[in-house]
């Protein structure tokens, strides 16, 4: 779908990081942007700041739709309310989620379940609620921000990698099932992006790591990531890789998987 045809874009995880940057990119293009994350006050802050920053007229460019990816029981009502207000959604960008930093043996099953609930089940539950709308209008695109960890795995991220791999499995199946309905699926795999993902990552007992991974802190800016994402989405690319030299790992994994496994065993991952 060419960018000039985009009218309404729904973004989860919109209060910070890549999600907030995507809101900036699409609002600057003139799209109406639905902002979702847990905290209504943070979403209102983002909408107000972007309205001033981009010199937008009035507050009609943004719709605030708070939701908690860990509580999908409310999604049916949220989607219904959003569609009643905006009438039509053209693009849903799934940016919301959490990460994890701990050895598998030290990570409680409760933490694994929480990561899976938010990163996987929350994302697919919201997708399933919006899917009938896309089917009815015979168009629409789901953009799923997973990670390079959805294509291969790293130590200290077992739960996170499991959830991201699961997203790839689900959305590849959805792509095949609804190709004839005109629905696009773009899986976005960022590498190191300078967000708070490592600060907010949960460790084995469920508390936050609270420290910045060195490579994450030195990564690409969220806005640069969002701009590359938007270009790939315009082209309706199936897979969008975003990052610097770390992207090479995708090709090493594809052609020399044993080599990548050796590299990952020795890599500094925090």
Description:
The protein is 47% helix and 13% strand. The protein is an alpha/beta fold and 270 residues long. It has one domain (3-245): NAD(P)-binding Rossmann-like Domain (Rossmann fold, 3-Layer(aba) Sandwich), CATH 3.40.50. Helix 1 crosses helix 8 (222-234) and helix 9 packs across helix 10. The radius of gyration is 18 Å and the shape is globular.
Concise summary:
With 270 residues, this protein is α/β, with parallel strands linked by helices.
Topology, pairings included?
Layout: E1 8-12, H1 17-28, E2 32-36, H2 40-53, E3 62-64, H3 75-86, E4 91-94, H4 109-137, E5 140-145, H5 158-177, E6 183-190, H6 197-200, H7 214-217, H8 222-234, E7 239-242, H9 248-255, H10 257-266
Parallel strand pairs: 1-2, 1-4, 2-3, 4-5, 5-6, 6-7
Largest sheet: 7 strands, parallel
Mean pLDDT: 95
Terminal-residue CA separation: 38 Å
Poorly predicted segments? none
- Shape from CA axes? globular
Number of strands: 7
Judging by the overall fold, what is the CATH architecture?
3-Layer(aba) Sandwich
Give the strand order of the largest sheet, numbering strands 1, 2, ... along the chain.
3-2-1-4-5-6-7
Proportion of β residues?
5-15%
